[in-house]
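Box 3.1 A note on notation
Throughout this textbook, protein chains are presented in two layers. The first layer is the amino acid sequence; the second is a token string describing backbone geometry. Keep the layers aligned when reading.
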Amino acid sequence: MNVDLAFLFAAGIALAVLFYVIFDGFDLGLGILFPLFPDEDHRKTMMNSVAPVWDGNETWLVAGGGGLLAGFPLAYGVILSALYAPIIAMVLALIFRGVAFEFRFRSRRRKHLWDAGFAVGSIVAAFSQGIALGALVQGIAVADRAYAGGWWDWLTPFSLLTGLALVAGYALLGATWVVMKTEGELQDRAFGLAYRAGIATLAAIALVSLFTPFQNPAYMARWFSWPAVIYTLPVPLLVVLCAIILFQALAQRRDYAPFSAAIGLFVVSYVGLGISFYPLIIPPETTIWDAAAPDTSLAFVLVGAALLLPMILAYTAYSYWVFRGKVDAEGGYH
């Protein structure tokens, strides 16, 4: 039996990227919302809620990037060349927010500067990721297995829209995370912000979904041709279902359901993106098989991934289990 190694590898990278968006999305969202929580005790509580897990969340970014290099070197080279500016901005922002995260705990007179750095780093990282996604969706010019576009091709109205959409989505994840992990006045404020972030996220999903099919005729065919529409119709219906669950949970002031519904919105939107993309890895023409490394290389790396990924999942699950429950400003988890 022939095994499609390129497909398996692409599925693994897609899963790693999804895990990154979910796990790092809520702590980026926490940073995006940070300026809206001026009380120092509230800020301490928010920081304590992610301090035990936030470093590990970025493991999935490394896994996705490393997997792309190992399994699809053509895609790695072309995508990084095309999106050099937003990717460098994202990396620098992640470094800066990481430094700010640690320094605010020790600083006294300059704490407000580190707080600003944490917020700005989070916003820039999220916005850069969204811009990179939008630029990839709209397509990258490739000629002779190399990037053939210009320096500013990534900067378009559509990529700016996806940048803002991801900022709104991460803010929703961050707000619902705070709802889940805190109590009292802080949780009350997070409920209100989650409601507003939810409206912004749904509006962004609608706009991005409206304009995405016009970026590539193949997208339009996958979403609106017959009988493909039969298979794509569940995606918008599931988005509506997740939205109903989200706002009902917020109205009922439930602790855990809003975060789960926010994750559901991301997962369903990600599936919709996959429907548009597959089997492309560099729109509008390069497929996963065009960009894949030789099968011998893919098989070698897949063996390592099969051993490593379960360990990453295990320690991630264990860390979240250990640090489950509510958190406060001084005592940590309780």
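Residues 4 and 54 are 34 Å apart (CA to CA). The radius of gyration is 20 Å.
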